[in-house]
Design brief:
Elements (H helix, E strand, L loop, with lengths): L1 H13 L2 H8 L3 H15 L4 E3 L4 E3 L1 H28 L4 E7 L1 H8 L3 H7 L3 E7 L13 E5 L7 E8 L2 E5 L1 H6 L14 E4 L6 E7 L2 E7 L4 E2 L2 H9 L4 E5 H10 L3 E2 L5 E3 L7 E7 L6 H22 L2
Parallel strand pairs: 3-4, 3-5, 8-11, 8-12
Antiparallel strand pairs: 1-2, 5-15, 6-15, 7-12, 7-13, 9-10, 9-14
Length: 305
C-alpha cells in the first residue's frame, strides 16, 4: 500500500503519468495501473482524467494531504532506523548554477564523499531554473527567493557584488569617479532577459540607478569574468567570484565607497532548495548540513569589507 501511495504522491507532484514515470523509472501505463489499484483499494476516485491533464477530485485532495503525512512519517522512521545502522547512503542529484558550482561547490565534493563514502553524487551545472519534482533533482542551488510552495530552502550565502575592472582597462579609458560615468563605459552584463540593463548603487542615503550597455552578455558569470580579466570592460559580479583576482591585483575595485547591486533590493541570496518533507532523507540532510558548515567562512569573504 505504501508503494502505491508513493506513486500517487509523485503523480500529483509531477502533474501527469508520463513525468511521474520518468522520476519513478516506470512506464506511464504502469503508473496508471498503480493509480487504478490504489483507487480500487480505497474505493474512491482520486483524479479527474482527460487527454490533456489530471485534476485531483475532492477526495483526491483530501487523500493527498493525509498521504503526505504518512510518507513523511515513513521517511522519518526509516531515517531513524538507518541512522542507528550506519552512515547516510544513496544517490544524490544536485543542480547548481555554473559559476558557483565550478568555483565553490566542486572543490567541496571530494571532502563530502570522503566523509560519507556511501553517498553517490551526480552534479549538474545548469543556469536554467529546474523543476525538482519533474526532473528528479534532490537539491538545487540557486540565487533568488523561493517561488514554489512545495519546496523548502536553506540559506547559504548573501550574494554581495562589487564593481571591478582590470588595470589595463582602467588605464586606457576615462576614469570612473561617480555612478553616472558608467554610462560611458563598456559594461559586461549578466543576462536578465530584458531589453535594458540597470545597475544600482547606494552610498548612505544616496541611491543611483544607472543604465548600462556593453558588447558581452552572458547568463553565467564565468565568461564575463574572463573578459574582464582581459581588459574588455567593467564588471559587476559576486564577491565570491572576484576576490582572488582583487587580492592578486588582476582586478581593481571601482567606486569602493558605493555599494553596487543588480537591483534596488540587492543582488540576491543563495539557497539550497529541496523537496518539502518534514524529515528530509538522511543523505539530503547530510549534504545540506555539510554545505551550510562550509559556507560559513565564505560569508566573511562575500562582504569584502
Amino acid at each position: 500500500m505504501l508503494e502505491l501511495i508513493k506513486v500517487f504522491d509523485q503523480v500529483v507532484e509531477s502533474g501527469n503519468f508520463s513525468q511521474a514515470g520518468k522520476v519513478l523509472n516506470m512506464a506511464p501505463s504502469s503508473v496508471a495501473r498503480n493509480i487504478d489499484t490504489l483507487e480500487s483499494k480505497i474505493k474512491a476516485t482520486l483524479f479527474k482524467r482527460s487527454t490533456r491533464q489530471l485534476v485531483l477530485t475532492e477526495e483526491g485532495q483530501y487523500f493527498y494531504q493525509q498521504s503526505t503525512k504518512i510518507l513523511q512519517d515513513s521517511d522519518r522512521l526509516l531515517a531513524e532506523m538507518r541512522g542507528n545502522q550506519g552512515d547516510p547512503e544513496g544517490s544524490l542529484r544536485i543542480s547548481v548554477f555554473e559559476s558557483f558550482g565550478n568555483l565553490c561547490l566542486a572543490p567541496l565534493i571530494p571532502e563530502f564523499l570522503e566523509r560519507y563514502p556511501k553517498i553517490h553524487v551526480e552534479l549538474e551545472l545548469n543556469n536554467s531554473v529546474v523543476d525538482l519534482n519533474s526532473e528528479n533533482i534532490d537539491i538545487a542551488i540557486r540565487i533568488g527567493t523561493l517561488q514554489d510552495s512545495r519546496l523548502k530552502a536553506r540559506h547559504l550565502l548573501t550574494n554581495y557584488t562589487s564593481l571591478v575592472a582590470a588595470p589595463s582597462y582602467i588605464k586606457k579609458h576615462t576614469s570612473i569617479k561617480k555612478p553616472e560615468d558608467l554610462q560611458d563605459h563598456n559594461c559586461l552584463l549578466i543576462s536578465h532577459e530584458r531589453q535594458r540593463n540597470y545597475w544600482y548603487l547606494r552610498k548612505n542615503t544616496a541611491s543611483k540607478k544607472v543604465l548600462v550597455t556593453g558588447n558581452l552578455i552572458s547568463k553565467g558569470g564565468s565568461p564575463l569574468l574572463h573578459a574582464a580579466l582581459k581588459g574588455s570592460g567593467v564588471l559587476l559580479l559576486s564577491n565570491w567570484m572576484i576576490k582572488p583576482y582583487l587580492d592578486s591585483g588582476e582586478l581593481s575595485e571601482l567606486l569602493p565607497d558605493w555599494t553596487s547591486m543588480y537591483s534596488e533590493q540587492g543582488s540576491g541570496e543563495i539557497f539550497a532548495i529541496y523537496k518539502n518533507a518534514q524529515y528530509p532523507r538522511p543523505h539530503i540532510r547530510a549534504f545540506i548540513d555539510f554545505l551550510v558548515e562550509k559556507m560559513e567562512p565564505m560569508k566573511r569573504v562575500s562582504t569584502l569589507r
